[in-house]
Amino acid sequence: MFQGAFTALVTPFKDGGLDEAAFERLIEFQIENGITGLVPVGTTGESPTLDHAEHIRVIEMAVQFAKERCPVIAGTGSNSTNEAIELTCEAEKAGATAALLVAPYYNKPSQEGLFRHFEAIAHETGLPIILYSIPGRCGVEIGVETVVRLAKACPNIVAIKESGGSLDRVSLLRQALPPAFDILSGDDPLTLPFLAAGAVGVISVAANLIPAEIARLVRCFAEGAAGVAREIHFKYYPLFKDLFIETNPVPIKAALGFAGRMSPEVRLPLCEMSEANSRQLRATMKSLGLLSV
Fold first, then answer.
1. What is the pTM of this model?
2. Residue 144 falls inside a structural domain
3. For the sheet containing 182-185, what is the strand order?
4. What is the CATH number of the domain that holds 26?
5. Which residues lie closer than 8 Å to 117 by C-beta, 6 or more apart?
6. What values do phi and psi take at 46, rounded to 5?
7. Sequence-distant (≥ 6) Cβ neighbours of residue 76 within 8 angstroms
8. Domain count, the chain
Protein backbone atom coordinates (compact mmCIF):
# COMPACT_ATOMS: atom_id res chain seq x y z
CA MET A 1 0.00 0.00 0.00
CA PHE A 2 2.81 2.44 0.89
CA GLN A 3 5.68 1.57 -1.41
CA GLY A 4 7.98 4.17 -2.92
CA ALA A 5 9.52 7.51 -2.02
CA PHE A 6 7.60 9.87 0.26
CA THR A 7 8.80 13.32 1.28
CA ALA A 8 8.82 14.35 4.94
CA LEU A 9 7.87 17.92 4.09
CA VAL A 10 9.35 20.92 5.84
CA THR A 11 6.91 23.60 6.99
CA PRO A 12 8.04 26.91 5.47
CA PHE A 13 7.88 29.96 7.72
CA LYS A 14 8.05 33.66 6.91
CA ASP A 15 8.31 36.30 9.61
CA GLY A 16 7.10 33.79 12.20
CA GLY A 17 4.01 32.59 10.33
CA LEU A 18 3.24 29.89 7.78
CA ASP A 19 4.53 30.65 4.28
CA GLU A 20 1.68 29.14 2.29
CA ALA A 21 3.03 30.21 -1.10
CA ALA A 22 6.39 28.54 -0.45
CA PHE A 23 4.60 25.39 0.72
CA GLU A 24 2.59 25.25 -2.49
CA ARG A 25 5.76 25.67 -4.57
CA LEU A 26 7.46 22.91 -2.59
CA ILE A 27 4.58 20.50 -3.21
CA GLU A 28 4.53 21.30 -6.93
CA PHE A 29 8.28 20.65 -7.07
CA GLN A 30 7.78 17.27 -5.38
CA ILE A 31 4.99 16.13 -7.67
CA GLU A 32 6.69 17.38 -10.84
CA ASN A 33 9.75 15.33 -9.89
CA GLY A 34 7.93 12.05 -9.42
CA ILE A 35 7.69 11.67 -5.67
CA THR A 36 5.25 8.95 -4.56
CA GLY A 37 3.60 10.91 -1.76
CA LEU A 38 3.79 13.72 0.78
CA VAL A 39 4.14 13.61 4.57
CA PRO A 40 3.30 16.96 6.20
CA VAL A 41 3.71 17.88 9.89
CA GLY A 42 6.05 15.13 10.97
CA THR A 43 9.38 15.73 12.70
CA THR A 44 10.73 17.51 9.62
CA GLY A 45 7.60 19.68 9.54
CA GLU A 46 8.37 21.07 13.03
CA SER A 47 5.11 19.78 14.44
CA PRO A 48 6.22 20.41 18.06
CA THR A 49 6.20 24.19 17.49
CA LEU A 50 2.98 24.41 15.48
CA ASP A 51 -0.15 25.27 17.38
CA HIS A 52 -3.25 23.14 16.86
CA ALA A 53 -4.79 25.40 14.22
CA GLU A 54 -1.53 25.61 12.27
CA HIS A 55 -1.10 21.83 12.41
CA ILE A 56 -4.51 21.27 10.84
CA ARG A 57 -3.96 24.10 8.36
CA VAL A 58 -0.74 22.52 7.05
CA ILE A 59 -2.56 19.22 6.49
CA GLU A 60 -5.40 21.01 4.72
CA MET A 61 -2.93 22.86 2.50
CA ALA A 62 -1.07 19.66 1.62
CA VAL A 63 -4.33 18.01 0.55
CA GLN A 64 -5.44 21.13 -1.33
CA PHE A 65 -2.14 21.64 -3.17
CA ALA A 66 -1.67 17.94 -3.97
CA LYS A 67 -5.03 17.94 -5.80
CA GLU A 68 -5.35 14.15 -5.50
CA ARG A 69 -2.20 13.65 -7.60
CA CYS A 70 -0.44 11.70 -4.83
CA PRO A 71 -1.14 10.40 -1.32
CA VAL A 72 -0.92 12.76 1.65
CA ILE A 73 0.14 11.04 4.88
CA ALA A 74 -0.56 13.44 7.75
CA GLY A 75 1.58 13.47 10.85
CA THR A 76 -0.91 13.27 13.72
CA GLY A 77 1.07 11.79 16.59
CA SER A 78 1.17 13.10 20.15
CA ASN A 79 2.19 12.01 23.62
CA SER A 80 -1.46 12.49 24.56
CA THR A 81 -3.70 9.76 23.18
CA ASN A 82 -6.73 12.06 23.15
CA GLU A 83 -4.86 14.72 21.22
CA ALA A 84 -3.57 12.16 18.71
CA ILE A 85 -7.13 10.94 18.18
CA GLU A 86 -8.33 14.51 17.64
CA LEU A 87 -5.56 15.33 15.15
CA THR A 88 -6.11 12.06 13.27
CA CYS A 89 -9.84 12.68 12.99
CA GLU A 90 -9.19 16.23 11.79
CA ALA A 91 -6.76 14.88 9.18
CA GLU A 92 -9.40 12.44 8.00
CA LYS A 93 -11.92 15.29 7.65
CA ALA A 94 -9.35 17.29 5.69
CA GLY A 95 -9.01 14.50 3.14
CA ALA A 96 -5.67 12.98 4.12
CA THR A 97 -4.88 9.56 2.65
CA ALA A 98 -3.34 8.13 5.84
CA ALA A 99 -1.92 9.10 9.21
CA LEU A 100 1.66 8.85 10.50
CA LEU A 101 1.68 8.31 14.27
CA VAL A 102 4.90 8.72 16.20
CA ALA A 103 5.45 6.90 19.47
CA PRO A 104 4.48 9.05 22.47
CA TYR A 105 7.49 11.11 23.52
CA TYR A 106 8.75 12.21 26.94
CA ASN A 107 6.27 10.20 29.04
CA LYS A 108 7.92 6.87 28.01
CA PRO A 109 4.97 4.44 28.16
CA SER A 110 5.45 0.71 28.54
CA GLN A 111 4.93 -1.58 25.56
CA GLU A 112 1.44 -2.30 26.85
CA GLY A 113 0.81 1.43 27.04
CA LEU A 114 2.06 1.85 23.48
CA PHE A 115 -0.24 -0.93 22.30
CA ARG A 116 -3.29 0.63 23.96
CA HIS A 117 -2.35 4.10 22.65
CA PHE A 118 -2.21 3.05 19.00
CA GLU A 119 -5.16 0.68 19.34
CA ALA A 120 -7.32 3.51 20.72
CA ILE A 121 -6.41 5.78 17.81
CA ALA A 122 -6.98 3.07 15.21
CA HIS A 123 -10.48 2.43 16.55
CA GLU A 124 -11.43 6.10 16.09
CA THR A 125 -10.45 6.52 12.44
CA GLY A 126 -10.95 4.85 9.10
CA LEU A 127 -7.58 6.09 7.84
CA PRO A 128 -4.71 3.67 7.26
CA ILE A 129 -2.12 4.20 9.97
CA ILE A 130 1.66 4.16 9.67
CA LEU A 131 3.45 3.68 12.99
CA TYR A 132 6.58 5.77 13.53
CA SER A 133 9.33 4.42 15.74
CA ILE A 134 12.13 6.91 16.44
CA PRO A 135 13.58 6.16 19.90
CA GLY A 136 16.23 8.88 19.61
CA ARG A 137 13.45 11.48 19.69
CA CYS A 138 10.89 9.68 21.84
CA GLY A 139 12.95 7.80 24.40
CA VAL A 140 10.97 4.64 23.65
CA GLU A 141 10.93 2.10 20.81
CA ILE A 142 7.80 0.45 19.47
CA GLY A 143 8.85 -3.13 20.11
CA VAL A 144 8.71 -5.73 17.36
CA GLU A 145 6.21 -7.80 19.35
CA THR A 146 4.07 -4.70 19.88
CA VAL A 147 4.04 -3.96 16.15
CA VAL A 148 2.98 -7.55 15.49
CA ARG A 149 0.18 -7.29 18.08
CA LEU A 150 -1.06 -4.05 16.55
CA ALA A 151 -0.99 -5.46 13.02
CA LYS A 152 -3.16 -8.35 14.17
CA ALA A 153 -5.54 -6.32 16.33
CA CYS A 154 -6.04 -3.29 14.06
CA PRO A 155 -6.59 -3.89 10.33
CA ASN A 156 -5.97 -0.22 9.54
CA ILE A 157 -2.45 -0.27 11.05
CA VAL A 158 -0.66 -1.22 7.87
CA ALA A 159 2.93 0.07 7.95
CA ILE A 160 5.81 1.40 10.04
CA LYS A 161 8.34 4.16 9.50
CA GLU A 162 11.53 2.79 11.02
CA SER A 163 13.95 5.43 12.30
CA GLY A 164 15.88 3.49 14.91
CA GLY A 165 18.98 3.08 12.77
CA SER A 166 19.08 -0.70 13.14
CA LEU A 167 19.31 -2.98 10.11
CA ASP A 168 18.85 -5.95 12.43
CA ARG A 169 15.51 -4.55 13.60
CA VAL A 170 14.29 -4.19 10.00
CA SER A 171 15.12 -7.85 9.43
CA LEU A 172 13.27 -8.84 12.61
CA LEU A 173 10.22 -6.79 11.61
CA ARG A 174 10.17 -8.25 8.11
CA GLN A 175 10.33 -11.80 9.44
CA ALA A 176 7.64 -11.23 12.07
CA LEU A 177 5.08 -9.26 10.05
CA PRO A 178 2.79 -10.26 7.17
CA PRO A 179 4.15 -9.51 3.67
CA ALA A 180 1.45 -6.87 3.14
CA PHE A 181 2.64 -4.85 6.16
CA ASP A 182 4.97 -2.19 4.73
CA ILE A 183 8.27 -1.12 6.28
CA LEU A 184 9.59 2.32 5.33
CA SER A 185 13.02 3.74 6.04
CA GLY A 186 13.01 6.91 8.08
CA ASP A 187 16.72 7.65 7.54
CA ASP A 188 18.11 8.67 4.13
CA PRO A 189 21.59 7.22 4.75
CA LEU A 190 20.01 3.83 5.55
CA THR A 191 17.40 3.62 2.78
CA LEU A 192 19.43 1.34 0.51
CA PRO A 193 20.41 -1.19 3.22
CA PHE A 194 16.87 -1.11 4.62
CA LEU A 195 15.49 -1.89 1.16
CA ALA A 196 17.86 -4.83 0.96
CA ALA A 197 16.50 -6.09 4.30
CA GLY A 198 12.86 -5.90 3.24
CA ALA A 199 11.75 -2.26 3.44
CA VAL A 200 9.68 -1.04 0.47
CA GLY A 201 10.38 2.67 0.52
CA VAL A 202 11.44 5.74 2.45
CA ILE A 203 9.96 8.78 4.13
CA SER A 204 12.79 11.08 3.13
CA VAL A 205 14.17 14.38 4.38
CA ALA A 206 16.55 14.76 1.43
CA ALA A 207 13.63 14.50 -1.00
CA ASN A 208 12.65 18.07 -0.09
CA LEU A 209 15.74 19.05 -2.09
CA ILE A 210 16.27 16.11 -4.50
CA PRO A 211 12.91 14.36 -4.97
CA ALA A 212 13.69 12.92 -8.41
CA GLU A 213 16.88 11.29 -7.20
CA ILE A 214 15.29 9.73 -4.11
CA ALA A 215 12.36 8.47 -6.17
CA ARG A 216 14.78 6.98 -8.70
CA LEU A 217 16.83 5.22 -6.02
CA VAL A 218 13.77 3.46 -4.62
CA ARG A 219 12.33 2.71 -8.05
CA CYS A 220 15.58 1.25 -9.39
CA PHE A 221 15.93 -1.06 -6.41
CA ALA A 222 12.33 -2.24 -6.78
CA GLU A 223 12.86 -2.92 -10.48
CA GLY A 224 15.96 -5.02 -9.88
CA ALA A 225 18.53 -2.38 -10.81
CA ALA A 226 20.30 -2.55 -7.46
CA GLY A 227 23.58 -1.39 -8.98
CA VAL A 228 22.02 1.87 -10.18
CA ALA A 229 20.35 2.37 -6.79
CA ARG A 230 23.74 1.87 -5.16
CA GLU A 231 25.33 4.49 -7.44
CA ILE A 232 22.65 7.03 -6.46
CA HIS A 233 23.11 6.14 -2.78
CA PHE A 234 26.86 6.71 -2.83
CA LYS A 235 26.64 9.87 -4.94
CA TYR A 236 24.29 11.55 -2.50
CA TYR A 237 25.52 9.92 0.70
CA PRO A 238 27.58 13.01 1.69
CA LEU A 239 24.41 15.11 1.40
CA PHE A 240 22.41 12.55 3.41
CA LYS A 241 24.96 12.83 6.20
CA ASP A 242 25.21 16.62 6.09
CA LEU A 243 21.44 16.99 6.34
CA PHE A 244 21.78 15.60 9.86
CA ILE A 245 24.92 17.52 10.83
CA GLU A 246 22.62 19.47 13.16
CA THR A 247 19.12 18.73 14.40
CA ASN A 248 16.60 18.03 11.64
CA PRO A 249 15.06 20.10 10.02
CA VAL A 250 17.63 22.88 10.48
CA PRO A 251 20.02 21.62 7.76
CA ILE A 252 17.38 20.78 5.15
CA LYS A 253 15.80 24.20 5.62
CA ALA A 254 19.24 25.78 5.25
CA ALA A 255 19.78 23.76 2.07
CA LEU A 256 16.42 24.86 0.66
CA GLY A 257 17.38 28.42 1.55
CA PHE A 258 20.73 28.10 -0.26
CA ALA A 259 18.82 26.79 -3.29
CA GLY A 260 16.46 29.79 -3.20
CA ARG A 261 13.34 27.72 -2.61
CA MET A 262 12.25 29.27 0.69
CA SER A 263 13.44 31.02 3.81
CA PRO A 264 15.58 28.81 6.08
CA GLU A 265 13.58 30.13 9.04
CA VAL A 266 12.92 27.72 11.91
CA ARG A 267 11.13 28.29 15.21
CA LEU A 268 12.73 28.38 18.62
CA PRO A 269 14.03 26.37 20.34
CA LEU A 270 15.60 25.46 16.98
CA CYS A 271 17.88 28.09 15.48
CA GLU A 272 20.03 28.66 12.39
CA MET A 273 23.04 26.45 11.63
CA SER A 274 26.53 27.34 12.79
CA GLU A 275 28.76 29.05 10.23
CA ALA A 276 31.10 26.06 10.02
CA ASN A 277 28.29 23.60 9.35
CA SER A 278 26.67 25.98 6.86
CA ARG A 279 29.94 26.13 4.91
CA GLN A 280 30.20 22.34 4.90
CA LEU A 281 26.62 21.85 3.69
CA ARG A 282 27.00 24.50 1.02
CA ALA A 283 30.25 22.90 -0.22
CA THR A 284 28.57 19.48 -0.41
CA MET A 285 25.64 20.89 -2.36
CA LYS A 286 28.00 22.67 -4.75
CA SER A 287 30.01 19.47 -5.34
CA LEU A 288 26.78 17.72 -6.34
CA GLY A 289 25.73 20.46 -8.75
CA LEU A 290 22.89 21.63 -6.52
CA LEU A 291 24.36 25.13 -6.24
CA SER A 292 26.00 27.18 -8.96
CA VAL A 293 27.85 29.54 -6.63
1. 0.96
2. yes
3. 37-39, 4-8, 201-204, 182-185, 157-162, 129-133, 98-102, 73-75
4. 3.20.20.70
5. 81, 84, 104, 109
6. 55, 40
7. 41, 84, 87, 88, 90, 91, 99, 100, 101
8. 1
* Residue 14 falls in the annotated catalytic set: no
- Asked if residue 285 is part of any domain, the answer here is no
| pLDDT tens profile 250-269 | 999 999 999 999 999 999 99
Q: Is residue 293 part of a domain?
A: no
Active site residue 237: no
Closest to 118 measured CA to CA, from 92, 85, 162: 85
Which of 185, 105, 118 minimizes the C-alpha distance to 157? Answer: 118
The catalytically annotated residue of 67, 161, 241, 253 is 161
Instruction: Check 14, 93, 108, 132 and give the catalytic one.
Output: 132
Closest CA to 115 of 86, 152, 89: 152
User: What domain range includes position 84?
Assistant: 4-223
Residue pLDDT, tens place only, 23-72? 999 999 999 999 999 999 999 999 999 999 999 999 999 999 999 999 99
257 falls within a domain: no
